[in-house]
Specification:
Layout: H1 2-10, H2 13-20, H3 27-49, H4 58-81, H5 146-149, E1 170-176, H6 180-193, E2 199-207, H7 220-225, E3 228-233, H8 239-249, E4 254-257, E5 262-264, H9 269-278, E6 282-292, E7 297-299, E8 308-310, E9 316-318, E10 334-337, H10 338-344, H11 357-367, E11 371-382, H12 401-412, H13 424-433, H14 442-450, H15 457-463, H16 465-468, E12 478-483, E13 489-492, E14 505-509, E15 520-525, E16 532-538, E17 543-549, E18 553-558, E19 571-572, E20 578-580, E21 583-587, E22 595-599, H17 600-604, E23 611-617, H18 620-631, H19 633-643, E24 664-667, E25 673-674, E26 680-681, E27 690-693, E28 696-699, E29 705-707, E30 718-720, E31 730-733, E32 737-740, E33 749-753
Parallel strand pairs: 1-2, 1-4, 2-3, 6-11
Antiparallel strand pairs: 4-10, 5-11, 6-7, 8-9, 12-23, 13-14, 14-18, 15-16, 17-18, 19-20, 20-21, 21-22, 24-33, 25-26, 27-28, 29-30, 31-32, 32-33
């Protein structure tokens, strides 16, 4: 009987195998197995009832089995070949017409080939949502795209669901100029790290290489092997023009721009596919790491840079937000959907060379309804130009970066473009070339018209309030800092804009309110409260005060917006000290005007060092920002709600526990308070929370005790592990007044305030 059961199992081998492989057996295949089962039972019973009473031979069984399997496999193959291909079935009814500019994203082939156009949206309002229980397939083109809604119906603030789509392929664009071996290595690296079904093509734009790259490193065999499409400029037009040529030629669903000297790391494409599928208007920036060009491998294991922010002179600086969103990109490494490339206009065809295109794209993305995000896991190793012969540029330099930046600023910053007059490089060009020295701007006007006007630039500033408000780039006031004893003011010795050396000097000189280099403002976020501010920034520069140095002068460094650089934690206190912790900046001596950094106590012994604000005024950028918010209240109301800017700051959890109440500690009779690190600060937003219990004042987050540090300086306090000693005891009196138990001959009292 076991032998019969084994034979019956074997005759179902083909249908069972098909099911295991995910293929549903057709009716004929199943009927053949049923017939074979009945046949084997009949043969078995006939053999047992015969005179010899023995089981049928296996040899004849396998002959029958071979014929059975042949018929079943033929039936399965015929059935599968006749099955309709789901990818060929339209998801929407075919429309008789399509928009004139429709350019549907397609996989491996010409644009818009056999693609179905979704029905037009009659109005910009979002379409009704399906019931939660119904699973809706993600469309191949987003419902909010111009291909779907038609000209004139673009919605800047589209609903998230209408931005989703299903990309399948990537085109990688490489602008290459005389980068022969580097171009070949980059091509190989892109090809090796991108799945073949996702890599649609590698578009190499040969920007005037002589001889052409197609005759040296990228010949016909190489092109065929690595899916290369070559586009060539006979004369060098520069990086911007080369990228525009490549972007316009690309036919993949997603266009990714790399430099011609990079090594994408394994699975680099995952973030691009996922993040852009969630929003077809999203630009994705990879983590940019360092490349060893000898081994063509990444140096280290990550920690790449990607986030930047925009400065008033159309430059970019590293840093920005603490989340995935970024207001600016550094350069050429980025990806977006081909649909958004077409809609947003790509690169400006009037820009030449390189530089400034990142400013254009960075602002354009955001104000016209898109966004820029940092890819958390995608890493691309990049060859940095170190000055060595191996990394030096080999191409012909063309173009004008100042011209390019001016075009970007005047295209998107609207009335804020007047800030360029504060920077000599731009002011001189304007005076010599006229008000419109940056050329015809009709290409930008066409984009704005196509995308229904885009948003005001002030929206961009509010969207990145963490940079422009919280880190002080739109300061409530600018002011000169006057040293009382000498009557001289702090002068920043560098020029407007980016410091070429990354550090500049500060001197005491005769005050001049007509010279912008004498003006300062608060800058850098407070690292505890994340609000403004924790340092002093030289107006219209990238430099923050970092203290004193030898030679009777102060020194500045590139501002660290996050406030995490302790050397930049300088403030002008209400009692006139230019102070950082227990250190102060003051005159070097009474005879020669100079600056030095020393303990605050040392200046007190020499008659003190006092500074004051002078010529305080509201700068142009702040006036324009406030005006824009008054003129567009509905735009900012929506954005404020999205950012939740009016939400109260979170108190430490211990402050919410039953029976406990938290207070902020102000010096009695003063506006100064202690922050969460027991340092004196001026802003109420920076005050730390403390709990009074067991005769001690404890920091609410760490529960460390406030300590006098056993010295006689009422300005120095610290936090230490609670031990119950006298230097940690405070006596409560008059309600919320707390005085130190230790008597040093002068009163050491705090006023406790709930807010």
């Amino acid at each position: 009987m076991l032998e019969l059961l084994l034979r019956l199992v074997i005759v179902w081998l083909v249908p069972g195998g098909a099911l295991a492989a995910g293929v549903t057996p057709d009716l004929l295949t199943s009927l053949l197995s049923i017939g074979a089962t009945l046949c084997e039972i009949w043969i078995w019973l006939s053999a047992l009832t015969s005179s010899k009473r023995r089981s049928p031979p296996w040899r004849s069984f396998f002959l029958r089995l071979a014929g059975l399997c042949t018929l079943q496999l033929w039936s399965l193959l015929l059935h599968e070949s006749m099955r309709p291909d789901d990818s060929d079935q339209p998801a929407e009814p075919v429309q008789p017409e399509k928009p004139a500019n429709f350019d549907a994203p397609m996989m491996r082939g010409s644009k818009a080939k056999s693609m179905v156009v979704p029905p037009k949206m009659s109005a910009p309002s979002p379409s009704p949502r399906p019931l939660a229980a119904v699973e809706v397939e993600t469309p191949r083109i987003a419902r909010a795209s111009l291909a779907a809604v038609g000209e004139g119906n673009f919605v800047v603030d589209a609903e998230p669901e209408d931005l989703k789509w299903a990309p399948r392929t990537i085109s990688v664009v490489l602008p290459c100029a005389e980068e022969r071996d580097l171009a070949f290595k980059t091509v190989k690296s892109v090809f090796a790290t991108t799945p073949t079904d996702i890599l649609h093509e590698i578009v190499v734009v040969d920007d005037g290489s002589n001889p052409p790259l197609s005759e040296t490193h990228l010949n016909a065999d190489v092109q065929k092997k690595y899916k290369i499409l070559i586009k060539r400029h006979d004369r060098t037009v520069g990086l911007i023009g080369a990228k525009k040529t490549g972007g316009d030629a690309a036919t993949g669903d997603i266009i990714v721009f790399f430099d011609c000297h990079v090594a994408p790391q394994p699975r680099w494409h995952d973030d691009f596919m996922k993040l852009i599928a969630e929003n077809y208007r999203r630009m994705v920036i990879p983590q940019i790491t360092a490349l060893d060009i000898d081994s063509w491998t990444q140096i280290g294991r990550g920690g790449g840079m990607s986030k930047c922010y925009l400065t008033w002179d159309g430059d970019f600086k590293w840093g920005g937000t603490d989340d995935m969103y970024m207001g600016m990109l550094s350069g050429g490494l980025a990806g977006m959907s081909r649909q958004w490339w077409d809609e947003s206009g790509g690169y400006d065809d009037k820009m030449l060379g390189w530089g400034g295109e990142n400013i254009d794209q960075g602002v354009r993305m955001w104000v016209c309804g898109g966004e820029i995000v940092a890819a958390p896991n995608s890493q691309v190793a990049h060859m940095w130009r170190t000055g060595s012969a191996k990394t030096s540029a080999r191409y012909k330099h063309v173009g004008d970066t100042i011209y390019n930046r001016a075009r970007a600023i005047n295209a998107w910053l609207e009335e804020f473009s007047a800030k360029l007059d504060d920077y000599p490089n731009f002011a001189h060009r304007k005076s010599s070339g006229g008000a419109n020295w940056f050329g015809d701007m009709s290409t930008f006007d066409n984009v704005k018209k196509r995308l229904n006007g885009c948003r005001p630039f002030a929206w961009y500033l509010k969207r990145f309030k963490v940079v422009y408000e919280d880190a002080g780039l739109i300061p409530p006031e600018i002011f000169m800092i006057r040293e009382e004893q000498s009557g001289l003011c702090l002068r920043y010795m560098g020029g407007a804009g980016t410091s070429g050396s990354g550090s500049e000097g500060v001197r005491l000189e005769n005050c001049d309110r007509n010279n912008h280099r004498f003006f300062w403002h608060l800058g850098n976020r407070n690292k505890k409260t994340k609000k403004c501010c924790s340092g002093l920034r030289a107006w219209n520069t990238d430099q923050c005060l970092q203290g004193g140095q030898s030679g009777g002068r102060g020194i500045t460094g590139i501002c660290e917006l996050s406030g995490t650089n302790p050397s930049q934690a300088w403030s002008l206190t209400s009692d006139g000290l230019l102070k950082k912790g227990s250190s102060c900046l003051g005159p070097a001596n009474s005879q020669t005007p100079g600056l030095k950094e020393a303990p605050c106590v040392s200046f007190r012994n020499k008659g003190g060092s006092r500074f004051s604000k002078m010529s305080s005024q509201i700068p142009l950028e702040t006036k324009l920002y406030r005006k824009a918010q008054q003129e567009h209240p509905e735009v900012f109301a929506r954005l404020n709600a999205e950012l939740n800017v009016d939400a109260p700051s979170d108190m430490p959890k211990r402050c919410l526990e039953p029976g406990r109440s938290c207070i902020k500690l102000y010096w009695k009779g003063s506006t100064q308070c202690l922050d969460a690190e027991a340092q004196w600060v001026e802003s109420q937003e920076d005050c730390g929370y403390y709990i009074y219990e067991n005769q001690g004042l404890k920091q609410a987050e760490t529960m460390a005790c406030l300590d006098t540090w056993s010295d006689e300086d009422v300005n120095t306090w610290g936090l230490y592990e609670c031990h119950g000693g006298n230097n940690q005891k405070f006596v409560q009196s008059d309600g919320q007044v707390f005085c130190a138990y230790v008597d040093i001959g002068s009163e050491q009292c705090f006023e406790g305030r709930a807010k």
